[in-house]
Specification:
alpha/beta; Rossmann fold; 2 domains; 6-stranded parallel beta sheet; 3-stranded antiparallel beta sheet; 19% strand; globular; binds adenosine monophosphate
Length: 294
């Protein structure tokens, strides 16, 4: 595996790869890697000649600066994990490689920076006005900003994202479409721990007691999927909310059943082709999300 920290050096290398007509698969991450991330690299390796993984803790997508400071950084271990799945390239830039001082100043002033659209109009419509969008103002703008920068640097044929961040995947699809970026966006299944908890870099921050109750999240989602056959959406919501509120260590932010395309809440199964149940909650100080396609 070759490790690049500089944009120019990575691009020089990828120019050669592209001149050889090789395809590039790309897996953007914020590091603190786990099996879920490695699964994305493995899928990319199957589909492409060269796989690039990036590790960059993106400041502009954090609306809570203490969350940014607490985000785990384990670059050496991550690098060994990527080697173990034969990832070809790791791109791990410093902040100054990714953002200009002016962009960082906007972030410091809490101003939403729309410069990443390159003058085009990008409108996520209702996609960023629900769920994570209401809980984390500016979050998806920061995600779209960094992913569009990374796409311009790496110029991948395909990019791989986990369905764990279902809304993020929808936002990125929409961004790539609106900016007409020549990249295929591929959504990949959620990888879970044996007890069902969705793998997340944040899980290491759970105390032993919190970790012990965390599987209630996925257990509730699996049960909701099972109940779908003979219960209404209102009944599923009532069931899930009661379950998750029964655990005193959990503070439920939302449980929503939404149209998998538009992410708008649905009241009836027939209102959408596919529906997905989405959860966000705080377990102690750790914010966790999970979802399941029903
Ligand atoms: P992150 O660095 O954790 O923000 O995520 C980087 C990529 O990994 C995103 O596309 C996530 O959706 C994906 N990802 C994170 N956790 C999982 C998981 N448990 N299963 C599958 N993909 C995941």
């Amino acid at each position: 595996m070759i490790i690049f920290t500089r944009v120019q050096e990575l691009q020089d290398h990828l120019d050669i790869v592209q001149n050889q007509q090789k395809t590039i698969g790309f897996v953007p991450t914020m590091g603190a890697l786990h099996e879920g991330h490695l699964a994305l690299v493995e899928i990319s390796k199957k589909d492409n000649d060269i796989s690039v993984c990036s590790i960059f803790v993106n400041p502009t997508q954090f609306n809570d600066l203490s969350d940014l400071a607490k985000y785990p950084r384990t670059l050496e271990k991550d690098s060994r994990m990527l080697e173990s799945v034969d990832c070809d390239i790791l791109f791990a830039p410093e902040i100054s490689e990714m953002y200009t001082e002016a962009e960082l100043e906007l972030k410091r002033q809490n101003v939403e920076d729309k410069g990443w659209t390159n003058g085009k109009t990008v409108d996520f419509g209702q996609l960023d006005r629900v769920m994570e969008g209401t809980q984390r103002p500016g979050h998806f703008n920061g995600v779209a900003q960094v992913v569009s920068k990374l796409f311009r640097i790496v110029r991948p044929n395909r990019a791989y994202f986990g369905q764990k961040d279902f809304q993020q995947l929808a936002i990125i699809r929409s961004m790539a479409k609106q900016l007409e970026l020549p990249v295929e966006i591929i959504g990949c299944p959620i990888v879970r721990e044996k007890d069902g908890l969705a793998m997340s870099s944040r899980n290491v921050r759970l105390t032993e007691t919190e970790r012990a109750v965390a599987p209630l999240i996925s257990k509730t989602l699996f049960k909701v999927k099972e109940m779908k056959a003979d219960h209404s959406i209102a009944e599923l919501k009532a069931f899930a909310e009661t379950e998750l509120r029964s655990e005193p260590l959990m503070q439920l932010e939302y449980f929503e059943i939404v149209d998998a395309e538009t992410l708008q809440p649905v009241n009836d199964y027939k209102d959408a082709k596919n529906v997905v149940a989405c959860i966000a909650l705080k377990l102690g100080n750790v914010r966790l999300i999970d979802n399941i396609i029903l």
